[in-house]
């Protein structure tokens, strides 16, 4: 896979459940943080976009869990992006370090609301890198 962006992270104790593995909801936090860091790296500010009347929102997430993470595990969250009509589709995978075992795979469909109406965002189109 030709990923556009990656972010290394580490599991914190409080992210684990009674079974000693990362609670499933925390994976959404990991991939959201990765998307936000990617946008920041491309010079995109969510706060400024909102002030300009543009809100990028998640429309759908599909996640497949492969291998659980445990407290203290280090991992890398990777993504690439495609444009499908008015949707920005993030393909995101998490891999455990150092063995690069796949932990989870996600597809995140996002759309933009321009002054409350569904539309396209020139700023995102100009600053983001899309795969064919």
Give your account of this protein's structure.
This protein is an alpha+beta fold and 132 residues long. The protein has one domain: Hotdog Thioesterase (Thiol Ester Dehydrase, Chain A, Roll), CATH 3.10.129. It has three helices and six strands, in the order βααβββββα. It has helices at residues 24-41, 46-51, 122-127; strands spanning 5-10, 54-65, 74-84, 87-97, 102-114, 117-119. Strands 1, 2, 3, 4, 5 and 6 form a six-stranded antiparallel sheet that branches. Strand 5 (102-114) and strand 6 (117-119) form a beta hairpin. It is elongated.
Rg (CA only): 16 Å
Structural class: alpha+beta
Please name the CATH architecture. Answer: Roll
> Spans of 5+ residues with little confidence (pLDDT < 50)?
none
How many DSSP-defined strands? 6
Mind summarizing the main beta sheet? 6 strands, antiparallel
Helix content: 10-25%
Range of strand content: 35-45%
Which H/E pattern describes the elements?
EHHEEEEEH
Please state the overall shape, judged from the principal axes of the Cα atoms.
elongated
Short key terms for the protein model shown above:
Thiol Ester Dehydrase, Chain A, 132 residues, 6-stranded antiparallel β-sheet, 23% helix
Helix and strand topology:
Blueprint: E1 5-10, H1 24-41, H2 46-51, E2 54-65, E3 74-84, E4 87-97, E5 102-114, E6 117-119, H3 122-127
Antiparallel strand pairs: 1-3, 2-5, 3-4, 4-5, 5-6
Précis, in short:
The chain has 132 residues and is of the alpha+beta class.
């Amino acid at each position: 896979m030709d990923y556009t962006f990656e972010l290394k992270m580490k599991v914190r104790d409080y992210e684990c459940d009674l079974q000693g593995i990362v609670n499933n909801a925390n994976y959404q936090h990991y991939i959201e943080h990765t998307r936000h860091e990617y946008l920041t790296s491309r010079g995109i500010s969510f706060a400024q976009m909102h002030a300009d009347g543009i809100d990028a929102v998640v429309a759908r997430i599909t996640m497949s869990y492969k291998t659980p993470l445990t407290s203290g595990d280090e991992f890398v969250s990777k993504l690439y992006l495609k444009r499908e009509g008015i949707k920005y589709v993030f393909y995101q995978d998490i891999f455990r370090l150092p063995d690069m075992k796949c932990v989870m795979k996600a597809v995140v469909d996002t759309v933009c609301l321009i002054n409350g109406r569904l539309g396209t965002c020139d700023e995102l189109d100009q600053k983001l890198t899309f795969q064919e």
